Protein backbone atom coordinates (compact mmCIF):
# COMPACT_ATOMS: atom_id res chain seq x y z
CA UNK A 1 0.00 0.00 0.00
CA UNK A 2 1.19 3.47 -0.84
CA UNK A 3 1.91 5.64 2.13
CA UNK A 4 -0.43 8.54 1.35
CA UNK A 5 1.19 10.87 3.85
CA UNK A 6 4.35 10.80 1.75
CA UNK A 7 2.53 12.25 -1.27
CA UNK A 8 2.29 16.00 -1.51
CA UNK A 9 -0.64 17.68 -3.22
CA UNK A 10 -0.10 17.87 -6.99
CA UNK A 11 0.55 21.32 -8.41
CA UNK A 12 -2.26 23.20 -10.12
CA UNK A 13 0.09 25.73 -11.67
CA UNK A 14 3.58 24.98 -12.99
CA UNK A 15 5.80 27.98 -13.61
CA UNK A 16 8.45 27.30 -16.23
CA UNK A 17 11.53 29.50 -15.94
CA UNK A 18 14.07 29.31 -18.78
CA UNK A 19 17.43 30.44 -17.43
CA UNK A 20 20.87 31.07 -18.77
CA UNK A 21 23.47 32.68 -16.51
CA UNK A 22 20.93 33.76 -13.88
CA UNK A 23 22.58 32.39 -10.73
CA UNK A 24 21.93 35.45 -8.59
CA UNK A 25 18.30 35.74 -9.64
CA UNK A 26 17.17 32.23 -8.71
CA UNK A 27 16.71 32.60 -4.94
CA UNK A 28 15.01 36.03 -5.13
CA UNK A 29 12.65 34.71 -7.79
CA UNK A 30 11.64 31.68 -5.74
CA UNK A 31 10.96 33.96 -2.75
CA UNK A 32 8.84 36.25 -4.92
CA UNK A 33 6.87 33.33 -6.38
CA UNK A 34 6.28 31.97 -2.90
CA UNK A 35 4.80 35.28 -1.80
CA UNK A 36 2.78 35.91 -4.95
CA UNK A 37 1.29 32.42 -5.21
CA UNK A 38 0.17 31.95 -1.59
CA UNK A 39 -2.97 29.81 -1.59
CA UNK A 40 -2.25 28.20 -4.99
CA UNK A 41 -0.64 24.75 -5.29
CA UNK A 42 2.33 25.62 -7.51
CA UNK A 43 5.67 24.30 -8.61
CA UNK A 44 8.50 25.85 -10.59
CA UNK A 45 10.75 24.21 -13.17
CA UNK A 46 13.96 26.02 -14.04
CA UNK A 47 15.32 24.98 -17.42
CA UNK A 48 19.03 25.78 -17.49
CA UNK A 49 21.20 25.32 -20.56
CA UNK A 50 24.22 24.30 -18.54
CA UNK A 51 25.11 27.88 -17.58
CA UNK A 52 28.79 28.28 -16.69
CA UNK A 53 27.95 30.48 -13.68
CA UNK A 54 26.42 27.72 -11.56
CA UNK A 55 22.75 28.48 -12.13
CA UNK A 56 21.85 24.80 -11.89
CA UNK A 57 23.62 24.50 -8.54
CA UNK A 58 21.69 27.52 -7.26
CA UNK A 59 18.40 25.83 -8.20
CA UNK A 60 19.41 22.44 -6.78
CA UNK A 61 20.34 24.02 -3.48
CA UNK A 62 16.81 25.35 -3.08
CA UNK A 63 15.26 22.17 -4.46
CA UNK A 64 17.02 20.19 -1.75
CA UNK A 65 14.78 21.94 0.77
CA UNK A 66 11.72 22.69 -1.30
CA UNK A 67 10.08 19.93 -3.40
CA UNK A 68 8.13 22.52 -5.41
CA UNK A 69 11.34 23.54 -7.12
CA UNK A 70 12.86 21.47 -9.90
CA UNK A 71 15.64 21.90 -12.40
CA UNK A 72 16.18 20.58 -15.90
CA UNK A 73 19.82 20.88 -16.86
CA UNK A 74 20.24 20.66 -20.63
CA UNK A 75 23.69 19.89 -21.92
CA UNK A 76 24.93 20.92 -25.37
CA UNK A 77 21.74 22.84 -26.15
CA UNK A 78 20.79 26.49 -26.26
CA UNK A 79 17.59 28.41 -26.78
CA UNK A 80 14.90 30.17 -24.80
CA UNK A 81 12.04 28.77 -26.90
CA UNK A 82 13.13 25.15 -26.85
CA UNK A 83 13.91 25.38 -23.11
CA UNK A 84 10.41 26.72 -22.47
CA UNK A 85 8.80 23.96 -24.53
CA UNK A 86 10.75 21.24 -22.76
CA UNK A 87 9.86 22.71 -19.39
CA UNK A 88 6.16 22.89 -20.23
CA UNK A 89 6.15 19.30 -21.46
CA UNK A 90 7.93 18.07 -18.34
CA UNK A 91 5.06 18.90 -15.99
CA UNK A 92 1.62 17.44 -15.33
CA UNK A 93 -0.08 20.44 -13.74
CA UNK A 94 -3.24 21.48 -15.63
CA UNK A 95 -1.98 25.07 -15.98
CA UNK A 96 1.47 26.20 -17.04
CA UNK A 97 3.09 29.61 -17.10
CA UNK A 98 6.36 30.70 -18.69
CA UNK A 99 8.26 33.58 -17.18
CA UNK A 100 11.78 34.98 -17.40
CA UNK A 101 14.18 34.15 -14.62
CA UNK A 102 15.69 37.64 -14.31
CA UNK A 103 12.91 39.30 -12.26
CA UNK A 104 11.87 41.51 -15.19
CA UNK A 105 8.42 39.91 -15.29
CA UNK A 106 6.04 40.82 -12.49
CA UNK A 107 5.08 37.61 -10.69
CA UNK A 108 2.30 39.32 -8.72
CA UNK A 109 -0.01 39.18 -11.75
CA UNK A 110 0.23 35.37 -12.00
CA UNK A 111 -2.95 34.80 -9.89
CA UNK A 112 -4.90 37.15 -12.19
CA UNK A 113 -3.50 35.35 -15.24
CA UNK A 114 -4.52 31.98 -13.77
CA UNK A 115 -8.01 33.27 -13.04
CA UNK A 116 -8.40 34.52 -16.62
CA UNK A 117 -7.62 31.06 -18.02
CA UNK A 118 -9.74 29.28 -15.41
CA UNK A 119 -12.59 31.53 -16.48
CA UNK A 120 -12.32 30.59 -20.14
CA UNK A 121 -9.41 32.31 -21.85
CA UNK A 122 -7.10 29.98 -23.78
CA UNK A 123 -4.01 32.08 -23.09
CA UNK A 124 -3.34 34.82 -20.56
CA UNK A 125 -0.54 37.16 -21.51
CA UNK A 126 1.43 39.40 -19.18
CA UNK A 127 1.23 42.51 -21.32
CA UNK A 128 3.28 45.69 -21.42
CA UNK A 129 1.05 47.26 -24.02
CA UNK A 130 -2.46 47.35 -22.55
CA UNK A 131 -3.86 50.00 -20.21
CA UNK A 132 -1.84 49.85 -17.00
CA UNK A 133 1.17 48.10 -18.52
CA UNK A 134 4.59 49.59 -19.25
CA UNK A 135 7.74 48.59 -21.06
CA UNK A 136 9.88 51.65 -20.45
CA UNK A 137 12.08 50.51 -17.57
CA UNK A 138 13.21 47.23 -19.03
CA UNK A 139 14.61 47.97 -22.47
CA UNK A 140 17.25 50.20 -24.01
CA UNK A 141 15.90 52.71 -26.56
CA UNK A 142 17.22 50.67 -29.49
CA UNK A 143 15.80 47.44 -28.14
CA UNK A 144 12.48 49.20 -27.53
CA UNK A 145 12.26 50.41 -31.12
CA UNK A 146 13.13 46.97 -32.41
CA UNK A 147 10.50 45.44 -30.18
CA UNK A 148 7.86 47.88 -31.44
CA UNK A 149 8.64 47.17 -35.09
CA UNK A 150 8.52 43.43 -34.43
CA UNK A 151 5.23 43.79 -32.58
CA UNK A 152 3.58 45.54 -35.51
CA UNK A 153 4.86 42.94 -37.95
CA UNK A 154 3.65 40.09 -35.76
CA UNK A 155 0.24 41.69 -35.35
CA UNK A 156 -0.23 41.59 -39.13
CA UNK A 157 0.25 37.82 -39.14
CA UNK A 158 -1.82 37.01 -36.07
CA UNK A 159 -5.43 35.90 -36.49
CA UNK A 160 -6.42 37.49 -33.16
CA UNK A 161 -5.68 41.00 -31.89
CA UNK A 162 -2.90 40.87 -29.30
CA UNK A 163 -1.31 44.04 -27.95
CA UNK A 164 1.89 42.33 -26.76
CA UNK A 165 2.56 39.23 -28.89
CA UNK A 166 6.29 39.53 -28.14
CA UNK A 167 5.78 38.92 -24.45
CA UNK A 168 7.78 36.14 -22.88
CA UNK A 169 5.33 36.00 -19.97
CA UNK A 170 2.16 33.93 -20.42
CA UNK A 171 -0.06 31.24 -18.92
CA UNK A 172 -2.17 28.59 -20.61
CA UNK A 173 -3.75 25.16 -20.19
CA UNK A 174 -1.24 22.36 -20.49
CA UNK A 175 -3.60 20.60 -22.94
CA UNK A 176 -3.09 23.40 -25.45
CA UNK A 177 0.69 23.13 -25.17
CA UNK A 178 0.57 19.38 -25.65
CA UNK A 179 -1.63 19.84 -28.72
CA UNK A 180 0.60 22.36 -30.49
CA UNK A 181 4.03 21.17 -29.30
CA UNK A 182 4.79 18.92 -32.29
CA UNK A 183 4.28 21.84 -34.67
CA UNK A 184 6.24 24.56 -32.84
CA UNK A 185 9.46 25.71 -34.48
CA UNK A 186 11.16 25.87 -31.10
CA UNK A 187 13.67 28.34 -32.46
CA UNK A 188 14.59 31.75 -31.13
CA UNK A 189 12.94 33.75 -28.40
CA UNK A 190 9.38 34.28 -29.48
CA UNK A 191 7.79 31.24 -27.96
CA UNK A 192 4.42 32.89 -27.31
CA UNK A 193 4.20 34.13 -30.90
CA UNK A 194 5.10 30.66 -32.07
CA UNK A 195 2.24 29.19 -30.02
CA UNK A 196 -0.27 31.83 -31.15
CA UNK A 197 0.62 31.29 -34.81
CA UNK A 198 0.47 27.52 -34.50
CA UNK A 199 -2.70 27.11 -32.42
CA UNK A 200 -6.06 26.60 -34.11
CA UNK A 201 -7.85 29.81 -35.07
CA UNK A 202 -10.23 31.55 -32.70
CA UNK A 203 -8.04 31.47 -29.58
CA UNK A 204 -9.36 33.51 -26.69
CA UNK A 205 -6.57 35.73 -25.43
CA UNK A 206 -6.65 37.72 -22.18
CA UNK A 207 -3.99 40.33 -21.52
CA UNK A 208 -3.08 41.28 -17.97
CA UNK A 209 -1.07 44.50 -17.63
CA UNK A 210 2.26 44.72 -15.84
CA UNK A 211 5.33 46.91 -16.01
CA UNK A 212 8.48 45.35 -17.34
CA UNK A 213 11.12 45.80 -14.66
CA UNK A 214 14.75 46.68 -15.14
CA UNK A 215 17.30 43.91 -14.78
CA UNK A 216 19.47 43.99 -11.65
CA UNK A 217 21.74 40.96 -11.94
CA UNK A 218 23.25 39.44 -15.08
CA UNK A 219 22.64 40.65 -18.62
CA UNK A 220 20.21 40.17 -21.48
CA UNK A 221 21.03 37.35 -23.87
CA UNK A 222 19.11 38.57 -26.86
CA UNK A 223 20.55 41.77 -28.12
CA UNK A 224 22.36 40.76 -31.28
CA UNK A 225 20.60 37.75 -32.70
CA UNK A 226 17.00 38.71 -31.98
CA UNK A 227 16.31 40.08 -35.40
CA UNK A 228 17.67 37.10 -37.31
CA UNK A 229 15.79 34.57 -35.24
CA UNK A 230 12.62 36.58 -35.38
CA UNK A 231 12.77 36.95 -39.15
CA UNK A 232 13.33 33.22 -39.37
CA UNK A 233 10.31 32.43 -37.25
CA UNK A 234 8.01 34.64 -39.32
CA UNK A 235 9.38 33.20 -42.55
CA UNK A 236 8.82 29.68 -41.29
CA UNK A 237 5.21 30.42 -40.35
CA UNK A 238 4.51 32.41 -43.53
CA UNK A 239 5.75 29.58 -45.76
CA UNK A 240 4.00 26.90 -43.74
CA UNK A 241 7.35 25.44 -42.72
CA UNK A 242 8.12 24.00 -46.18
CA UNK A 243 11.69 25.25 -46.23
CA UNK A 244 13.46 24.45 -42.95
CA UNK A 245 14.73 27.58 -41.18
CA UNK A 246 18.09 26.00 -40.72
CA UNK A 247 18.43 25.54 -44.46
CA UNK A 248 17.64 29.21 -45.08
CA UNK A 249 20.32 30.21 -42.57
CA UNK A 250 22.77 27.74 -44.10
CA UNK A 251 22.16 29.08 -47.61
CA UNK A 252 22.49 32.68 -46.41
CA UNK A 253 25.80 31.85 -44.75
CA UNK A 254 26.84 30.18 -48.00
CA UNK A 255 26.08 33.38 -49.90
CA UNK A 256 28.25 35.33 -47.47
CA UNK A 257 30.93 32.71 -48.08
CA UNK A 258 30.89 33.51 -51.79
CA UNK A 259 31.50 37.17 -50.98
CA UNK A 260 34.31 36.26 -48.59
CA UNK A 261 35.83 34.08 -51.30
CA UNK A 262 35.78 36.86 -53.91
CA UNK A 263 37.19 39.35 -51.43
CA UNK A 264 40.04 37.03 -50.46
CA UNK A 265 40.74 36.28 -54.12
CA UNK A 266 40.83 39.95 -55.05
CA UNK A 267 43.19 40.61 -52.15
CA UNK A 268 45.56 37.74 -52.94
CA UNK A 269 45.70 38.19 -56.70
CA UNK A 270 45.19 41.93 -56.93
CA UNK A 271 47.24 43.14 -54.01
CA UNK A 272 49.67 40.34 -53.26
CA UNK A 273 50.13 39.17 -56.85
CA UNK A 274 49.66 35.52 -55.93
CA UNK A 275 49.37 32.90 -58.70
CA UNK A 276 45.71 32.46 -59.58
CA UNK A 277 45.35 28.74 -58.86
CA UNK A 278 47.13 29.11 -55.52
CA UNK A 279 45.03 32.13 -54.63
CA UNK A 280 41.89 30.19 -55.58
CA UNK A 281 42.84 27.42 -53.15
CA UNK A 282 43.65 29.88 -50.38
CA UNK A 283 40.42 31.83 -50.91
CA UNK A 284 38.45 28.57 -50.80
CA UNK A 285 40.03 27.70 -47.46
CA UNK A 286 39.30 31.17 -46.08
CA UNK A 287 35.68 31.03 -47.26
CA UNK A 288 35.13 27.53 -45.85
CA UNK A 289 36.57 28.60 -42.51
CA UNK A 290 34.36 31.70 -42.43
CA UNK A 291 31.33 29.58 -43.29
CA UNK A 292 32.17 27.13 -40.56
CA UNK A 293 32.47 29.85 -37.94
CA UNK A 294 29.23 31.54 -39.02
CA UNK A 295 27.32 28.28 -39.19
CA UNK A 296 28.58 27.33 -35.75
CA UNK A 297 27.36 30.66 -34.37
CA UNK A 298 24.12 31.11 -36.27
CA UNK A 299 22.81 28.10 -38.17
CA UNK A 300 23.73 25.54 -35.53
CA UNK A 301 23.95 27.77 -32.47
CA UNK A 302 21.76 25.35 -30.53
CA UNK A 303 24.35 22.62 -31.15
CA UNK A 304 27.41 24.88 -31.01
CA UNK A 305 30.77 23.08 -31.11
CA UNK A 306 33.45 24.05 -28.61
CA UNK A 307 36.94 22.92 -27.62
CA UNK A 308 38.28 19.76 -29.31
CA UNK A 309 34.91 19.11 -30.96
CA UNK A 310 35.29 22.46 -32.73
CA UNK A 311 38.51 21.39 -34.45
CA UNK A 312 37.18 17.98 -35.31
CA UNK A 313 34.09 19.70 -36.76
CA UNK A 314 36.17 22.13 -38.80
CA UNK A 315 38.22 19.35 -40.39
CA UNK A 316 35.09 17.38 -41.16
CA UNK A 317 33.50 20.49 -42.61
CA UNK A 318 36.48 20.95 -44.97
CA UNK A 319 36.07 17.35 -46.16
CA UNK A 320 32.31 17.70 -46.59
CA UNK A 321 32.60 20.94 -48.53
CA UNK A 322 35.45 19.55 -50.60
CA UNK A 323 33.31 16.61 -51.67
CA UNK A 324 30.45 19.02 -52.28
CA UNK A 325 32.63 21.14 -54.55
CA UNK A 326 33.82 18.06 -56.45
CA UNK A 327 30.20 16.98 -56.98
CA UNK A 328 29.35 20.49 -58.11
CA UNK A 329 32.04 20.51 -60.78
CA UNK A 330 31.30 16.92 -61.81
CA UNK A 331 27.57 17.35 -62.24
CA UNK A 332 27.87 20.63 -64.09
CA UNK A 333 30.51 19.19 -66.43
CA UNK A 334 28.37 16.13 -67.20
CA UNK A 335 25.29 18.21 -67.92
CA UNK A 336 27.22 20.45 -70.30
CA UNK A 337 29.15 17.61 -71.97
CA UNK A 338 26.00 15.68 -72.78
CA UNK A 339 24.45 18.85 -74.14
CA UNK A 340 21.58 18.58 -71.65
CA UNK A 341 21.61 22.22 -70.56
CA UNK A 342 23.56 25.39 -71.20
CA UNK A 343 26.48 26.23 -68.89
CA UNK A 344 24.56 28.79 -66.84
CA UNK A 345 21.88 26.33 -65.85
CA UNK A 346 24.42 23.57 -65.34
CA UNK A 347 26.39 25.82 -63.01
CA UNK A 348 23.27 26.67 -61.01
CA UNK A 349 22.25 23.00 -60.77
CA UNK A 350 25.73 22.10 -59.56
CA UNK A 351 25.68 24.88 -56.97
CA UNK A 352 22.24 23.87 -55.70
CA UNK A 353 23.35 20.28 -55.37
CA UNK A 354 26.37 21.43 -53.39
CA UNK A 355 24.33 23.51 -50.95
CA UNK A 356 21.85 20.68 -50.35
CA UNK A 357 24.67 18.17 -49.92
CA UNK A 358 26.68 20.41 -47.59
CA UNK A 359 23.56 21.14 -45.58
CA UNK A 360 22.49 17.53 -45.25
CA UNK A 361 25.90 16.30 -44.19
CA UNK A 362 26.60 19.28 -41.92
CA UNK A 363 23.29 18.73 -40.13
CA UNK A 364 23.89 15.05 -39.58
CA UNK A 365 27.66 14.57 -39.24
CA UNK A 366 29.30 17.87 -38.37
CA UNK A 367 26.77 19.34 -35.93
CA UNK A 368 24.64 16.23 -35.40
CA UNK A 369 21.31 17.95 -34.98
CA UNK A 370 19.46 14.72 -35.63
N1 LIG B 1 17.45 27.95 -20.99
C1 LIG B 1 17.76 29.09 -21.63
N2 LIG B 1 18.49 29.01 -22.78
N3 LIG B 1 17.34 30.27 -21.15
C2 LIG B 1 17.66 31.39 -21.82
C3 LIG B 1 18.43 31.39 -23.01
C4 LIG B 1 18.85 30.11 -23.50
O1 LIG B 1 19.53 29.99 -24.52
N4 LIG B 1 18.58 32.67 -23.43
C5 LIG B 1 17.94 33.43 -22.53
N5 LIG B 1 17.39 32.68 -21.55
C6 LIG B 1 16.60 33.11 -20.38
C7 LIG B 1 17.24 34.20 -19.58
O2 LIG B 1 18.09 33.70 -18.58
C8 LIG B 1 16.02 34.88 -18.98
O3 LIG B 1 15.55 34.18 -17.85
C9 LIG B 1 15.00 34.76 -20.07
O4 LIG B 1 15.40 33.66 -20.87
C10 LIG B 1 14.89 36.04 -20.94
O5 LIG B 1 16.17 36.34 -21.46
P1 LIG B 1 16.71 37.85 -21.47
O6 LIG B 1 18.05 37.78 -22.08
O7 LIG B 1 16.58 38.46 -20.11
O8 LIG B 1 15.68 38.51 -22.47
P2 LIG B 1 15.08 40.01 -22.52
O9 LIG B 1 14.82 40.54 -21.15
O10 LIG B 1 15.95 40.82 -23.39
O11 LIG B 1 13.66 39.74 -23.23
C11 LIG B 1 12.68 38.93 -22.59
O12 LIG B 1 11.54 39.59 -22.18
C12 LIG B 1 10.78 40.18 -23.21
C13 LIG B 1 9.55 40.77 -22.61
O13 LIG B 1 8.69 39.78 -22.13
C14 LIG B 1 12.25 37.82 -23.53
O14 LIG B 1 11.37 36.95 -22.83
C15 LIG B 1 11.54 38.37 -24.73
O15 LIG B 1 11.09 37.30 -25.55
C16 LIG B 1 10.38 39.19 -24.29
O16 LIG B 1 9.85 39.89 -25.38
MN1 LIG C 1 15.37 39.92 -19.39
Instruction: Let me know the CATH homologous superfamily of the largest domain.
Output: Spore Coat Polysaccharide Biosynthesis Protein SpsA, Chain A
- Assess the beta-strand content as a share of residues: 5-15%
CATH level-3 fold name of the largest domain: Spore Coat Polysaccharide Biosynthesis Protein SpsA, Chain A
Please count the beta strands (DSSP E, at least 2 residues each). Answer: 7
Side-by-side strand order of the widest sheet? 3-2-1-4-6-5-7
- Largest β-sheet summary: 7 strands, mixed
Provide the low-confidence segments as ranges. none
Bound molecules: guanosine-5'-diphosphate-alpha-D-mannose, manganese (II) ion
CATH arch. level architecture of the largest domain = Alpha-Beta Complex
User: What sequence of helices (H) and strands (E) makes up the elements?
Assistant: EHEHEHEHEHEHHEHHHHH
Oligomer classification = single chain
Offer a few descriptive terms:
370 residues, alpha/beta, elongated, Spore Coat Polysaccharide Biosynthesis Protein SpsA, Chain A, 52% helix, binds guanosine-5'-diphosphate-alpha-D-mannose, 2 domains, binds manganese (II) ion
